[in-house]
Backbone:
């Protein structure tokens, strides 16, 4: 059955900023952060509700930690933040009338969503709300799958929560649904009705695919896989294997700044976005391993961001080949070669059939001397050492061609079709 796509008409216009933003911060923060054993701890350890609920009163939060996240996101070159307003545990971080199990009535005695929104606006970041449809705390959260009255009550609760989030905090840019267990179809969730309400309340909003409707973008998780041409997508990735705070990790468990740059290249090359997660400590502080890494990524983006931000073209069409010293992204007739293994003062690229007009190192606008034969470009005048130092050690060359760049390198050598 063809699903009515209510956001189709103005999707390109609504999503232009999001595509050009490329890079966002994901924040998983809730009662589970106090236990430090992953955000699924309640489920995986089958913690009795009587033992888990008191976490709502013991949760102590420092003064406005969201300003720390926003400042770091800005420094990292991130353009938007998506924060958990309610995760599977069912605890609401905002001033909701749907349940007393919330951060204003219990523990922090503050509207943590309001603080998050204020911080994003202070630092000029777009605002995303994560909302878990699955709810382990609500009495109808499981019953809804086999009891029609329970499903009605649970959908009233769900729509009530989403309506509050879309009505009480000003302009919200992204709605990031998650885990639509246990109802098995968008019809049973009545997702189209709910998302129509969302779009009426927030006409410019961008909605992900996890209310069981495709909506505006796909969400590959913990892997970077480009969607089919024309479909927006955002890879969401943990920093250390856990979305929620997890102190039981080694430094080696955290993706390096160099790995994050590589993720950015994969996302950019496929025309997608990267949503990289931090799991703040219970008081809201950012785990130390994330801070240095994100600052290094931000310094890299200050120098090489031209290859990442803005409108990009898939590096897979027309064909650009895999190369041993680096990998490509593309904007029209310009190709960006992200060199992660520096060759020294000269660099050769085989197989380009388009006329190279200019070669330069991003970060210095100096044209580099080059030669181009039918199958081979050699760029000279490069620094002996990688101009991008540790920890990212990934410099970017910009190659401007006279026409759409086309590279062809068969498995053979000097084959006729390469001439
Ligand atoms: O179960 C959740 C998980 O805890 C986390 O929130 C991720 C983030 O995309 N989503 C679900 C797993 O797909």
Residues:
């Amino acid at each position: 059955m063809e699903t009515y796509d209510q956001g189709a008409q103005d999707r390109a216009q609504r999503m232009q900023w999001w595509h050009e933003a490329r890079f966002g911060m994901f924040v998983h923060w809730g009662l589970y952060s106090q236990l430090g054993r992953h955000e699924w701890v309640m489920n995986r350890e089958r913690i009795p509700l009587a033992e888990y609920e008191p976490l709502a009163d013991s949760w102590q939060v420092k003064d406005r930690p969201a300003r720390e996240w926003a400042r770091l996101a800005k420094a990292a070159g991130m353009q938007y933040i998506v924060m958990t307003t309610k995760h599977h545990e069912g605890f609401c971080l905002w001033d909701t009338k749907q349940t007393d199990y919330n951060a204003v009535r219990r523990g922090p005695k503050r509207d943590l969503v309001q603080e998050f929104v204020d911080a994003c606006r202070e630092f000029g970041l777009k605002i995303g709300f994560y909302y878990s449809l699955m709810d382990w705390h609500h009495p109808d959260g499981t019953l809804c799958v086999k009891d029609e009255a329970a499903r009605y009550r649970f959908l009233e609760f769900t729509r009530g929560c989403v309506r509050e989030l879309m009505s009480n905090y000003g302009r919200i840019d992204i709605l990031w649904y998650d885990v639509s267990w246990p109802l098995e179809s968008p019809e049973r969730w009545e997702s189209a009705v709910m998302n129509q309400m969302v779009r009426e309340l927030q006409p410019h909003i961008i909605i992900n695919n996890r209310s069981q409707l495709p909506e505006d973008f796909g969400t590959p998780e913990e892997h970077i896989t480009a969607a089919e041409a024309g479909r927006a997508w955002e890879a969401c990735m943990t920093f250390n294997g856990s979305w929620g705070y997890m102190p039981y990790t080694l430094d080696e468990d955290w993706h390096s700044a160099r790995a994050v740059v590589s993720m950015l290249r994969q996302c950019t090359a496929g025309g997608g976005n990267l949503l990289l997660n931090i799991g703040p400590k219970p008081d809201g502080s950012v785990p130390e391993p994330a801070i240095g890494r994100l600052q290094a990524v931000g310094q890299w983006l200050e120098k090489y961001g031209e290859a990442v931000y803005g409108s990009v073209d898939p590096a897979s069409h027309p064909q650009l080949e895999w190369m041993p010293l680096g990998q490509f992204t593309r904007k029209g007739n310009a190709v960006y070669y992200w060199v992660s293994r520096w060759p020294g003062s000269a660099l050769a690229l085989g197989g380009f059939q388009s006329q190279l007009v200019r070669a330069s190192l991003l970060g210095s606008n100096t044209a580099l001397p080059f030669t181009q034969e039918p199958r081979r470009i050699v760029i000279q005048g490069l620094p002996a050492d990688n101009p991008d130092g540790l920890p990212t050690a990934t410099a970017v060359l910009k190659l401007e061609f006279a026409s759409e760049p086309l590279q062809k390198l068969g498995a053979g050598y000097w084959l006729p079709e390469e001439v």
User: Anything to note?
Assistant: Residues 28, 39-40, 178-179, 221, 236, 243 surround FHN (CB under 6 Å). Residues 148-167 form the longest helix (20 residues). The first strand starts at residue 23 and ends at 27. The chain has a mean pLDDT of 96.
